[in-house]
Structures are given as structure tokens and as C-alpha cells.
Amino acid sequence: MDLSKQKILYSHHWSYVECQRHPIFSRDEIYITSYPDQADKIINLPIGTSYDVKEILTENYPNWQPDLFIAKVDSFFNVIPRNVKALDCPKILILGDTQHGVKPLERMIEYAKSEEYDFYITDHKRHHLWYYYLARIPNLYWLPGLFLNPPQGDLKIIDFEDSTIEPDFFTNKIIFVGQASKFHPRRKAILEYLHQQIPNFWSGRLSQRDSLKAFSQAQISLNISLNGDLNLRFFEIISAGGFLLTDTLAEEAGMNLLLEEGKEYESFENVEQLINKIKYFLQYPELIEEYKKRSYQRYLENYAPEKHKENLENILEEKFINEIYYSNLIQRINSFSESQYAQKRIEIYQTVQYIHKYTENLTIFIDIQFFNCYVEDFLDLPRITVSILNYIPYNFEKLIEYLGTSKNLHKVKFTNDKHNNNYDILIIESINIDLFLQGNKQYFTVISSDDHSWQDISIILREEYPHIKFTVNKYTDFFTIHVERQNILKEKFTDKIKLTAINYIIFPDWQTDEETLTEELYNLITTLAEYSPLSKGGWGGSNLPSPSGRGVGGEGIITLVIDTTGITEEDANLFLSGIAMNLMMEEDLDLENILDFALINNLNEQQWSQLLPKITAKITVENESQEIINQLNLEDLVTINGNGNNYAIFPDWKADQEKLASEISQVLINLSEEESHTLLVNLNNADQEEVGLFFSEIAMNLMLSEGVELSDNLHINFVNFTLDQWQSLGGLVKDKLSI
User: Is 467 in a helix, a strand, or coil?
Assistant: First the structure.
């Protein structure tokens, strides 16, 4: 099968198709994606859409039938193909990012088993093939860098797309190209430290094409994974002829199967080692050039697009490919081939993986008597150390054999000390009060199924140790307790959450269908971020005015306060971080410097009384928790429609009152004929009580003299917003009405 001559249908989450390789494999390709603009051979779908692939193809291209269907799905589930069995051609599922997001592996496995694909391939998450194997998903392969968009032409003579970059700007620099937000905590901390320690260090974001030219110029190009994953940047650097210095990954990630360390790339285990390696190699520029040449040659021979095209053709024809791409080469699969899938097992791993993302060196204590907890599951995370208790009943000989062959022996310790709780995570069968009182960790997590003991312990902690805060999340047959031991000094509730000069609050109904709620919150967060005073261009050409006064304290950053009653804090964090990561990758919105999330739940009356005066406005969402709202007194809170049905007027209160009343009357008459909407009336420091009486007189006059009764669907809010606050609402205000 020559893929270049086949009709290939792709389903992918790409928002920017122009950043992808063209063609990918064939000259006759159609893309189903979340690409925002119209283009030939592209079928656009809203983010989060599940679609019948046969129906949508027939609707858009009825006379075009694919010879091959390739769908890439990741943990964000932006576009989700359904009914793939209806296509009369081979079908390939590319198993995308599962190292972060909401229940990433659990949902990916559920999807993979719900549809009938012929082949299942991961392009970058080799270490997660183990879990697909446990779920007995067949025909598993690893093709790293499958969708790489390599340099087109000679990078030495190609200009930067960004005309503000000097032609040789990155020459002799040490660089990192990519995101470094609060959703990349480890990466962000490392880069901040490097800026202090390494002269001539640069980090930031570039277009895909400009990043390749930067890698080709730089002396050293860094790669820092998000969460122990072999990412695309690994291949972008070597395809551009760059020197690759990357963080050490677990053996299961497969990095050492691709390049030879010490000749073709270098790695670092911690920031001190990173600094030392940078300083060492800067002394030997000729050695750097040797690394560049060797890794680039390896790329051309093994990982260039034409090579993976051949690999894919051979897989489809069931011919032999390099053994490193087969799942049966994975040591865990060979050593524990009889291991069984369990929901509980995946949930525990996802919990540990999530904490690993935020922890430099993660220490785990496991009581092996805890059912369905297996130490081999965690060893694909590079920065962990596991201490095992009660290992005698465990399959000890097989474990030791695996630890040796997989080069993981240094990660595991065997202990009989069950009283030492100086760990980041404790996975234990039974719990006691001392567990929460001893040790020196400020933050740690307990995973247990001892619900009976926990009921008594939680009462003691609440009554006698109020400085020990905890959050409990329920899972299949177990629960987690995230513990924070705070300073005993009492602090106000509002001091614990990060508020700014622009604070909006929403009350989502977390029982709403996940796909529906994701789309609604995604759109709202996108709107707030795009119109933030700190976003590029702000309101741009908006016709909204610039009232006097600027926000202070928050410097234009928006805080979105989100009530999470009805969902665990961990699930809410995962849900929102998934949306935020998606926005940063797909919409190029750097939320860290634009918008903060503040999660609240089950507040008491005193806490609400402290919080509500600091709220700029409540944003009404379509799927809202009315039960919570009905319990609160929100009459004095400005309310804005999240769907954008909001208008604004900016009266000159010093103008002739009769003329002003006439103009406002006309506005109210026009709005009374529309569906539910909100009118924001700028007070501009006028007395709110007097303005309220003025509007009451207008409404009464309209009813008596004009026979116009204002609809209950018209909500009027009197506001004294600052410039930053008005600007942040730019995407939610439909129009400024002239008076």
C-alpha cells in the first residue's frame, strides 16, 4: 500500500491546520477538526463534538470515500469520532496525550474499547501502552514523531516569520521554546532559575516554523517534559539540527531506544545537573557540533516523515517494522503479562500521575496489602521513589527481576517501618490519627479504603486540629485525602483565595452532561481571556467607552471564582486545567498572566459575607446550580448573562434631565421587546439611590402614559466599574446603546 496514492480521512483536534505537515501522507486528504476558519478539504466542528463519521462525510463530501481513516484523540476530547465501523476501510486510532487532563487514561481506554478500530498507535506516550495492554486493547504500536512537521527548506536562508526577530538572534544562545505557565509548574520553576544562573539564556514562545530556525541557530536547545512524557519538541530539535538537552524520562518512555545518550543527546535529572551540563558543553563548541550532526543523521535515517510513512504502510500490510515500535518489547508487558485491568488500578495511577506533575521528587509509601495497587504501575513516572511494606506476599521474585531488567531498581525500597509518614503519598489499607499528626510534610495525600476509621478521625481533626485542612475525593472502592497542615494562626477566608480588582463568580451545575458543561465554560473562559485588559489588543476596535478610573491591586488580571459544590476539588481542578491547557495550546491564550481560577465550596454564612462584597459581578451560565443560588442573598450583586445578552449605557448625569429621561425611555422600550437580557447602567460615581429613583419614575411613566410595561426578562444593574472591569466585559457586552 502506497499511502501517497490513497484517499485518507483524518480526525484531529488541530485548531491550526496550517501548522501541520502538508500533505501528511497523501495528496488526497480531508480533515475533520476544530479548525476555526473555512478552508478546502476541512470539515469544521465545535470543540467537544461527538460526531458520526459516516454521516458527516456523506453530508460534506458525498462522492469521496476514504481508503484509510486516521483519528487522533487525546485527553481533551476536542472532536470525537463515532460509528467508525461504518467506514469501509482500515481504521487507525492515534492514542494522544494522556499525561494530564481529566481522567485521561480512564476516558481514553473507555473510548478505545467503545469503537472498532483496526490498529491502535501512540505517537508519544509509549509508557502508557502498558495500561492499554491491561485493558486488552489489541494491535498496539508506538510511532514517535508521527505527525512531526519538519523544516521545509534550508533554515539558514529562511527568514523568521516574526519580522521583529533579528536574523541571527538565537546564535550562541541556550534556549527553551514553549509554554511555561502555572500548568507547567516544574518547567516554569526550572526556567526561572536558569534565567538567574545562565547568561545568554532565552525562553519563550515562537511559531512552529520560527522555533525550528531557533533550534538550528542555538548552541543548546532544552526540552522539559510536562509530566514525564516524550514530546514532539524532542523531534523538532533534532530535525532542525539542534543540540538536544532534555530531562531524564523513565525507561518505559523509550527515549534511549531512539537516540544514544552521550553521543546524540544529553539528559539531566535535576536542575543542578542541568546547570553543570550547560556550563560543561559551552566550553566545547566543537563537541556540540558533533552531537548535532549525529542526532540529525539519526533523524534522517529513522524518524523523518518518509520513514514513518513506510512504517505505517508496513503495519497496514502486516509486515515487519523495527522491533522498538512493537508493544511486546515493553518490559512490563513481558514481565507481568498475566496482570489484569481494574478500574481502581487506573484511578490510583491517575491520582499519582496528577500529583507527580506538581512535585519535583515524589515519594510514595505502599502497603502492598492494599488491593489492586501494583508498584510497577508507577515506575513510568521519572521522579518517584517507592517504599514498599508487606512485600512478602507480593510476587517478589518477578518484581526484582523486572526492576533489574527495566533499570528501575534504584526507584524502589523495601521497608518494615509503617509509622514513618514523611511521604508525599501514602497508599495504605488502614489509617489512624497519628498519620495526620506526625511527620514534617506540609502537604501529603492518603489513599485508603478504611472508611470506617476515617469517619472517626475526621471528626477529631475538625474539632481538635482545625489547622489541619483536608479534602476528600471518592473513587471506586477507595478514597483520597489531600492534607494541608497550615499555620495555626487564624486568617480571614478571603485571604486564602487569590482575589484581584476584577472578580467574577459562577455557580455551574456539575451534574450537567460533561460535554455540554465543557463547551459552555470553555466559551466563557475564552471570552474573558480574549477581552482581558492584559490580552493582546484588549477590546481592539470596540465601541465601548473608557470610563474614568483604573483597577488597582490585580493589575488587570481577572479572577473567576467558581463554586464547586457537587464535585470534588481534584475533579474540578482537572476539569478546569483541561480547558485552560486546551486554550493555551489551541487558542494561543496564555491564561497565567490573564486569568486566575479560585475554587470555593460549602461556604458558611460568615465566609459568604466576606467574599460577596469583593465580587465584581455574578455571571449567569445556562447550566447553573439553582439550589446554591437560592440559598444566598444575591440581590445586591451585579448579574451578567454569560451568553452575551448584555447591553450598556453611559448616561451623562449632568445633562438635561428631561432629555435624558426621554433617551433612556426609548432604550427601555426597545429592550422590552427582546428576550432575556441585562442592561448595565454606568453610574460614573453618581448616587445609586438617586439613579434608582430616576429609573423607577421612567418605568412608571412608560406604563401610565405609553402603556409599556417592562418585561421581567429585562434586568437592570447600576454599576461603578473601573476601566479594567469594563474592558474585561468586552466579549459579554453585545452593544453600547447610544443616548
Answer: coil
3-state secondary structure of 491: coil
Residue 592 DSSP class: G
Q: What is the pTM of this model?
A: 0.78
What backbone torsions phi and psi does residue 141 show, to the nearest 5 degrees?
-140, 165
Rg (CA), the chain: 29
Query: 438: closest CA among 426, 454, 456, 455?
Result: 426
Same domain, 625 and 680: no
Mean pLDDT, range 94-108, rounded to an integer = 93
Q: pLDDT at residue 543 above 70?
A: no
CB 165 within 8 A of CB 213: no
Contact 158, 216 (CB under 8 A): no
455-461, long-range: CB < 8 A, 24+ apart: 457/431, 457/432, 457/433, 460/433, 461/433, 461/436
**Amino acid 425: pLDDT:** 95
504 and 629 part of one domain: yes
Report the C-alpha gap between 616 and 501 in whole angstroms: 8
Give the ranges where 469-513 is alpha helix by DSSP (H).
493-496
Q: What percent of the chain has pLDDT over 90?
A: 55
Q: What are the distances in angstroms from CA 385 to CA 37, 269, 373, 375?
A: 47, 13, 15, 10
Q: How far from the centroid of its chain's Cα atoms is residue 458's Cα?
A: 32
pLDDT at position 594 is 84
Q: What cell numbers appear for 306 in the block? A: 518518509
pLDDT at site 292: 98
Are 235 and 209 found together in one domain?
yes
What is 398-422 written as a DSSP string? HHHHHHHHTT-GGGEEE----S---
Q: How many CA atoms lie within 13 A of 6 on its CB side?
A: 19
Note whether 478 and 497 are same-domain residues: no
DSSP-derived 3-state class of residue 439? coil
Task: Return the HEC string of 74-92.
Answer: CCCCCEEEECHHHCCCCEE
From CA 91, how far away is CA 82, in angstroms rounded?
Answer: 12
pLDDT-based confidence at residue 725 (cuts at 50, 70, 90): confident
**Per-residue DSSP letters for 226-293?**
SSS---HHHHHHHHTTPPEEEE---GGG-HHHHS-BTTTBEEESSHHHHHHHHHHHHT-HHHHHHHHH
Pairwise CA distance, residues 269 & 267, whole Å: 7
The Cα–Cα gap between 323 and 312 comes to: 14
Please check the confidence at residue 31 and state whether its pLDDT lies above 50. Answer: yes
Enumerate the β-bridge partners of residue 648: 680, 736
Helices and strands (H and E) in the chain: how many: 23, 30
Residues 509 and 617 placed together within one structural domain of the fold: yes
634 plus 497 within the same structural domain: yes
Length of the chain: 739
Structural domain range at position 431: 340-485
Same domain, 636 and 658: no
Per residue in 635-678, pLDDT (tens digit) is 888 899 998 889 999 999 888 888 999 999 988 888 877 777 89
* pLDDT-based confidence at residue 419 (cuts at 50, 70, 90): low
The neighbour count for residue 223, using CB atoms within 10 Å, is 24
Confidence of residue 554 (pLDDT cuts 50, 70, 90): very low
For the range 313-317, what are the long-range contacts, defined as Cβ-Cβ under 8 Å and sequence gap of 24 or more? 313/1, 313/2, 313/3, 315/119, 315/121, 315/141, 316/1, 316/68, 316/90, 316/119, 317/1
How sure is the predictor about 541, in pLDDT bands with cuts at 50, 70 and 90? very low
Is 430's pLDDT higher than 60?
yes
Q: Residue 547: what pLDDT?
A: 36
- Residue of 247, 454, 227 lying closest to 352 (CA atoms): 227
- Note whether 12 and 108 are same-domain residues: yes
Q: How confident is the model at residue 542 (pLDDT cuts 50, 70, 90)?
A: very low
- The Cα 637–Cα 619 span in angstroms is 10
Please give the tally of structural domains in the chain.
5
* Residue pair 485/467 in contact by the 8 Å Cβ criterion: yes
